[in-house]
Amino acid sequence: MPADDLTQRRRREIADAAALTFAEQGYHATGIADIAQRLGIGHGTFYRYFKNKRDILEYVLDEVTVRLGEVLAAEDPTSTTTLEEYRAQVERIGTGLFQLFGDEPAIARLFYVEGVGADHEFSEKWMDLQGAFAAVTGAYLQNGVDRGFLPADLDVEVSARAVNGMIFAALLAVIRDPDPAAETERWVAGITRIMFAGIA
Description:
CATH architecture: Orthogonal Bundle
CATH class: Mainly Alpha
CATH topology: Tetracycline Repressor, domain 2
Radius of gyration: 19 Å
Largest sheet: none
C-alpha cells in the first residue's frame, strides 16, 4: 500500500478513536493521552498525524463536508418537474444523509455536537457550512417555485433553514439510538410527511 494511503488510513483511525472518546468524555475533557491510549499508541505517533485535538476537528469537518457533498451531488436540484418527483428526490437524499451519519454515529456526534463548541473560530466555520447547506436545500425549493409545483410566495431561504433544522434535530436523535440504521426509514418518512402533507 502506498505511503500516502497508509497515512490517510492512520489519520482516519485516529480521528475515529478521537470521535469515540469525545463522545464519551466530551471534547474539552479529552486529552491526547486518552486518544492515544484508546489506540494503544504513543503521543509521538499521534503528533506525526495531527498537530493537536483541534486539528482532528478540522479533519472531520473537511471529511464530512466532502461526504455530504457526495450525497447531495447524486441529485440535480433542477431535475424534478412535479411535486411527486420532488418528494421522491427528498426521500432519496434523506436516506443518504441518515445512512451517512447512522453508519458512524461518533463522527456525527463530533460534527454536530462536540465540535460546535470547541472554539469561536470552529463554530464560525461550522455555521458557514450550515449556511452553504441551506443554500443547497434552497436550490431544490427554488426549482419547485420556478416550475410551479411549490407556492410562488414560498420564502425559500426560511424554508430551506427550517427543512435543514428538521434534519439536524432528527440526526441528533438517530445518532443516540442503539440501532441508528434501523431508524432511518422512520425519520425520513416523518420529515417527508411534514414537508409535503403537514401535521394536520
